[in-house]
């Protein structure tokens, strides 16, 4: 798998001795505060350790100069995404935005047109930065998926500049072994569901999170990932640095 222009851009920044800052924008699928390792943690670890271009004594360059900031919020809509982008512009001034989501717009009663308006403003504000955008991953809730289909299409149809890399993670995720991802027990009153032994159809487990990281790393950076190997090593009591290839 060949490394992408975005990978090479980050590499050049690191070789120039500069810091490269990444901000995550999204909802609970990106904040993932109850899963460890979650996909943001997996993504950060693998990306930092993928820069083989640095000699052994320069190991610290990608580890210290690649910085990650989580601005994702549980329950966030695209309106909240916009507010978080404005805030992170002031606080972080990132080089790269990684944005996943918009499915909560359905819960908030936002129309497809309102979603598009919010995303367009986000893309306008970030037009001097690198941006990765994908709709949310496909869930096991078929009713919600059917409602979300039109939001997915509309978000991917937005005309953006060359600084924005859009890909359809909603469809890509369907090709993964989804039946093994949705094993988390629901808690009463959380996320609008009632407990009773049912499984959360929206938020994937650790393995599902590793697959989300795989999706971003392969699609946007050309870094191939073996999720099962990574999961096996993270569950081991003897492996210090999990392998992903």
User: Count the strands?
Assistant: 5
Biggest sheet overview: 5 strands, parallel
Distinct helical segment count: 11
User: In CATH terms, what is the architecture?
Assistant: 3-Layer(aba) Sandwich
Order of helices and strands: HEHHHEHEHHEHEHHH
The CATH topology is Rossmann fold
Low-pLDDT parts are 189-195
Helix content: 40-55%
Distance between the termini: 12 Å
Quick structural gist:
This protein is α/β, with parallel strands linked by helices and 245 residues long.
Q: Can you put this structure into words, describing what you see?
A:
There is one protein chain. The protein has a single domain, classed as Rossmann fold (3-Layer(aba) Sandwich), CATH 3.40.50.1110. The radius of gyration is 18 Å and the shape is globular. Helices cover 44% and strands 10% of the residues. The protein has a five-stranded parallel beta sheet, sandwiched between helices. With 245 residues, the protein is of the alpha/beta class. About 3% of the residues have low confidence.
List keywords for this structure.
245 residues, alpha/beta, Rossmann fold, five-stranded parallel sheet
Secondary-structure topology with pairs:
Elements lengths: L4 H11 L4 E7 L1 H4 L7 H11 L10 H6 E5 L7 H14 L4 E5 L3 H4 L4 H14 L4 E5 L7 H15 L7 E3 L2 H6 L31 H16 L5 H8 L11
Parallel strand pairs: 1-2, 1-3, 3-4, 4-5
């Amino acid at each position: 798998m060949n490394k992408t222009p975005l990978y090479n851009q980050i590499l050049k920044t690191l070789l120039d001795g500069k810091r490269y800052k990444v901000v995550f924008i999204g909802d609970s699928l990106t904040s993932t505060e109850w899963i460890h390792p979650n996909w943001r943690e997996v993504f950060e670890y693998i990306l930092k350790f993928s820069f083989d271009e640095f000699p052994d004594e320069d190991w610290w360059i990608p580890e210290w100069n690649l910085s990650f900031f989580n601005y994702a919020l549980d329950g966030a809509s695209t309106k909240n995404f916009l507010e978080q982008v404005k805030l992170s512009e002031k606080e972080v001034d990132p080089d790269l935005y990684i944005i996943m989501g918009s499915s909560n717009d359905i819960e908030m009663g936002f129309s497809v047109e309102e979603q598009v308006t919010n995303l367009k403003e986000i893309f306008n504000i970030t037009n001097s930065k690198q941006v990765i955008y994908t709709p949310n991953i496909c869930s096991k809730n078929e009713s919600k998926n059917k409602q979300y289909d039109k939001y997915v299409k509309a978000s991917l149809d937005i005309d953006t500049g060359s600084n924005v890399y859009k890909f359809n993670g909603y469809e890509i995720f369907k090709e993964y072994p989804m039946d093994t991802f949705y094993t988390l027990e629901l808690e009463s009153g959380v996320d609008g569901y009632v407990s009773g032994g049912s499984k959360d159809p929206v938020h994937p487990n650790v393995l599902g999170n590793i697959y989300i990281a795989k999706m971003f790393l392969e699609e946007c950076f050309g870094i191939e990932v073996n999720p099962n190997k990574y999961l096996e090593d993270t569950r081991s009591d003897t492996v210090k640095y999990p392998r992903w290839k």
